[in-house]
């Protein structure tokens, strides 16, 4: 191991080409996570047919990865600051690849939920490490803005490539193949990363406090579980108990951080208004968007009858918009202002989500494509600039912790969005009337999920089956409209809040010192 005091010098020494080559390795890690997140949505109808999960199990398969990753991100970001971000990134990438095999060969809903949870443990090491390494490799603020733009563009590109590659695989192989595409990416990342990535860590980190790790994990998972269960099943003693345990544990976590000499998370970061505002904007934006992202591929496949590859291609405008906007975001924020770019991006997403209420069962593609393009542009602008603000507002020794807070907000928003908006879609959906003469068990299966309705219809006479599917599709679209309307209100409100909270916030111009 290199002595800690020499490590910062080591990343200072990276030549200009070396910095960009190192960035290309980090981009692979981002692709790994982004592709994986999108293929799950695409594989959901096939997975449902094979593993036959209940509606609740299906939500758990979608959510548990976010739960675990949200609970561990701060701990992993802090661990990377201590043991070295390169070491953590490469270890996590190896684990991510191996656990992907378990996802691919899951034989029951329960095993799939466990596999997704383990993938969350591995995934929690990747994103904070990539952003922290960017913060420590790129010392010039303008160069760093470009690097963050490329990092964000890679996430968007992965989200686009995932459905297209996944769609191709689903048409030619079994659903588990979509998880196996992680393996070659992981192999390249590890082999190349060992040689090309510089190691960086906090030269005087202090111990990694295991009690804080446990408190943050229990606290976040308990809070998210309470919200999810409350959204799906309504208030109950179990939900109330989980909420109380979660809030109390997080309060204990915060108190402990304030008394520790070397806290897992430096709570003083939140005193920086720009940092706090950017984190809050990320959380609320993802909350508003998550329902759309989770249900869009089901809409394209099960309502509009598109094949998986076609559904993947139909989602491309969002990624194209996000890639282009992400690359231009830093320049735009310096030319206009941070708050103009972030608020403008969020307002654009809000308007696009509102336009989804115009989408019906047979809506032609141009309207849908235009909506997705606007969502992509808005997200590319907002997320790239908030990531830049978050990284610029902390000392580079704490880059892992700061990145982890940003990623925790993202994952928490995703879990809450899928839980809240997902339960709204499910609640509206379950209310649809079944055709006369539909047997009770078939009606129950149809009310579980849209995939369940399509499968249940095959057991009925052709006419009754067609009526059942049409009623289920109408109800699903109604649910999508409700969730999009709520998402739209959340995004517009966040845009207004960001305008005030990011007042006076600027991106740095050169390689200046950091507070």
Characterize the overall form.
Answer: globular
Find the CATH topology of the largest domain.
Growth Hormone, Chain: A
- Strands, count: 0
Low-confidence regions: 1-12
Kindly provide the radius of gyration, computed on alpha-carbon positions and rounded to a whole number of angstroms.
22 Å
Protein name: MFS transporter
Domain Major facilitator superfamily (MFS) profile: 22-506
Organism: Streptomyces koyangensis
Pfam family, one: MFS_1
Can you walk through the features of this model?
The chain crosses the membrane at residues 20-46, 58-76, 88-107, 113-134, 146-168, 174-198, 210-228, 234-254, 275-296, 316-333, 340-359, 365-391, 412-432, 483-502. Keywords: Antibiotic resistance, Cell membrane, Membrane, Transmembrane, Transmembrane helix, Transport. InterPro entries: MFS, MFS_dom, MFS_trans_sf. Residues 22-506 form the Major facilitator superfamily (MFS) profile domain. It is found in: Cell membrane. This protein has 515 residues and is mainly alpha-helical. The chain has 2 domains: 4-9 and 16-208 and 264-501, MFS general substrate transporter like domains (Growth Hormone, Chain: A, Up-down Bundle), CATH 1.20.1250.20; 209-263. The protein is built from 19 helices and no strands. The chain has helices at 7-12, 16-51, 55-83, 85-104, 109-137, 141-172, 177-180, 182-196, 210-233, 237-259, 273-303, 308-314, 316-335, 338-355, 365-392, 399-429, 440-448, 450-457, 462-501. α11 (273-303) runs antiparallel to α19. It is globular and about 70 Å long. The two termini are 29 Å apart. Mean pLDDT is 83; it is low at 1-12.
